[in-house]
Fold this sequence. Notes:
Number of helices: 12
Structural class: alpha+beta
Largest sheet: 9 strands, mixed
Bound molecules: adenosine monophosphate, glycine
Oligomer: single chain
CATH architecture of the domain at 2-97: 3-Layer(aba) Sandwich
Amino acid sequence: xxxxxxxxxxxxxxxxxxxxxxxxxxxxxxxxxxxxxxxxxxxxxxxxxxxxxxxxxxxxxxxxxxxxxxxxxxxxxxxxxxxxxxxxxxxxxxxxxxxxxxxxxxxxxxxxxxxxxxxxxxxxxxxxxxxxxxxxxxxxxxxxxxxxxxxxxxxxxxxxxxxxxxxxxxxxxxxxxxxxxxxxxxxxxxxxxxxxxxxxxxxxxxxxxxxxxxxxxxxxxxxxxxxxxxxxxxxxxxxxxxxxxxxxxxxxxxxxxxxxxxxxxxxxxxxxxxxxxxxxxxxxxxxxxxxxxxxxxxxxxxxxxxxxxxxxxxxxxxxxxxxxxxxxxxxxxxxxxxxxxxxxxxxxxxxxxxxxxxxxxxxxxxxxxxxxxxxxxxxxxxxxxxxxxxxxxxxxxxxxxxxxxxxxxxxxxxxxxxxxxxx
Length: 423
Ligand code: AMP
Ligand code: GLY
């Protein structure tokens, strides 16, 4: 079959790498893609939210499966767009329908879902411009630090954690009254702070059954020792060494199973990935967020461990027969280390030539913000490349990635040399 992947990052390069290994995939397309995907597939110059443009490409290239990388098209209803179009109804879309995508599109919706299905999560209340004074009063009842979350999509920037009450009140006002995050902060969820260690769990569902993918932990901050500004992710490790079978059983029984059951009870059609962000407090897992897609760079550490044909899995998701598939996982540890443009996540330069990728033999280099200009690979984003290695443990895998990184060069290249430091 002909398959289209939507997106342009390291996650989508990893999907393309995995899908292109499947005998079930005849022709592979990525929209818009990057220099990495162009070496495995045909890049199509269409935006992920241009549904009419996507339709045209799907019909032109006889595409029968669309794998959605980022959240934007899902929250904007790409699945529903396909369902409602007579020419597109037969196409398998891997992702939730719009209603279920609100699990990521609205923090309040996600909290209501978690409460309704008695899934462990932080206590919260939500506020609007009209109730900002109640918001101040609620903050006064909490202990610091204070967690403020813009309700809508804010490109990963919508969560603020503040240590001082006055600052928290100011930020609440700035979000609600001064639209700090635009429409995304029309509503703000204020949450109890959970003190624990984070990990993520990845679930595949066909809307009836589910399968677990390996856990992963990502490193979000730019600076070593988890300091400085938040980024999209500076590296990831899979599996998470502290996620023993006891913790995994709790995660499955108290969180994953009630989540999939909750989707069924609430009549929220879902055929895709569920990415559950967790914090473990005193050995008890609690949900901090749902994402309705795979993580980036978690995908770059999770998918290289998957031995099963991904297209076969996607077909089973589409047919609602996921229960009949065996998911085989490589017991090795995978790590990925992100190479970023100097200055990121603030202002940075683009258009720097990248050299040395072809000298890397022991790792897989996934392209993120990189583009092919007349045969030369140039930087085109903040997160540029990510270097994945497998090893018997995360330390040996990291050693391999760092040796491979020594071969790669571009002007003002930056990366974290301490991925896994806390494990
Ligand atoms: P989110 O976008 O909801 O994942 O939040 C971004 C980051 O904020 C998370 O990865 C956590 O590190 C942190 N965070 C979110 N909610 C809480 C909470 N209730 N307690 C402590 N940290 C949190
Ligand atoms: N790495 C975090 C995310 O993809 O949201």
